[in-house]
Amino acid sequence: MAKSQKKTAGVNQTSPRRYTPITNDEIARIAASRFGQDSGGRMLSVAELARIYNRDPAQITRLLRRAFEERIVELRSLVGADDSNPRGSARDIEEQLENQLGLIKATVVSEIGEPADDTAAALALHSDQTHHLLGEAAAKRLIGSGMVFRDNDIIGVGPGRAVDQTIKALAKQPGIRAENVTLRSLSGDVHARYHSGTGVYVDADRHVSDMALCFPRRGKLEMVSRQIAYSSRTECDIARSHSHLQWKDNKAPNLILAGVGVYSAGHQWFESVTPHAGPNEVPIKLKTHVLHPIKELLERLAKNCKDHQVGDHLLPVMDIANHLLHINPPEWTGPPESGPEGIWEKIRTQVADINAHTLTVRLDQIRKIPIMLVAGTIPKAQAIHRLFELRLKVRYLCTDLPTAERLLALRS
Predict the structure, then answer these.
(1) Beta strand pairing status for 371-374 and 255-258?
(2) Report field, pTM of the whole predicted structure over 0.90
(3) What architecture does CATH give domain 88-411?
């Protein structure tokens, strides 16, 4: 008996395999590795996967079968997908982002051109064109991989150009096979626009409606269908209590599809109180605009922000799904008596006050949900970095090469 116990103990001590529970995200990563995501397109054998993930080959086989049976992943042939460009250094950057930020998948768009000139109109058009390329890449390389959406998912959908372009690109692809999916808007209407003044409003409710067409097996749509801004906190709380933004943990989204905005020229909230701040020739008529109830709050925030930039073009406030966040100031190296601490504290307070008057997803809700982030252009690098500082669960990232390089520099 003693001899048998000793032999059993020896097996346990020398076995390198793990039999611990595994999440769907880990299963998706193993399936992606199987079909060449991490090996330059070369399919990996079960034995190789077992060695890489330190698991028994039989378990790897079962997990791969489970990945497809439960539609954790799917294989799809994408019409118009361009596989001829290896994207060289972009893939190296993607691997660095995945390793340093703990991402399941990063996609970096390297085919970004230069603006025609340095005028505000040219820069705005270039920014819109960049978001078009980001949306195309997110649809093909992230969502199109079949790794993301599953049956019975609840998908939180944000506003903005990047989300709009992602959904437009998805509509050109074969329908997503996931069944019984719920699409939930994460913000009231703010009538956001493209920076160059072209296109339609890019609000979350409209995105939910458009994205529903990408799922042939129709599910459920949950829209806010209300204005975003309220003159009193009580009024905003009442509106929230009657909206889909008030959910229990067991009804929370499985994933958020969102971009980020920065409080500067082109941002609807900033331009609403800063006449002719952006490239659009027609100024916003705030008296009849949905942001009018918080006009004074936005004006005070703009006044404090204008002279305290984090970078050349970036003011110290950002948003995700129209929920405002302050961006940490750079280290102050001047005399203590002239430091910006007082202003930064005011900005933090004003951001919190505006959030209390607006109908959007809250930070405490966002913290608990995995995020697919589609965001780019250099001014947004600091904003993307801020999300990781806040330890938000960004699991998928699609950005452009200059922004990715800047983000890695900020993380170093």
Answers:
(1) parallel
(2) no
(3) 3-Layer(aba) Sandwich (3.40)
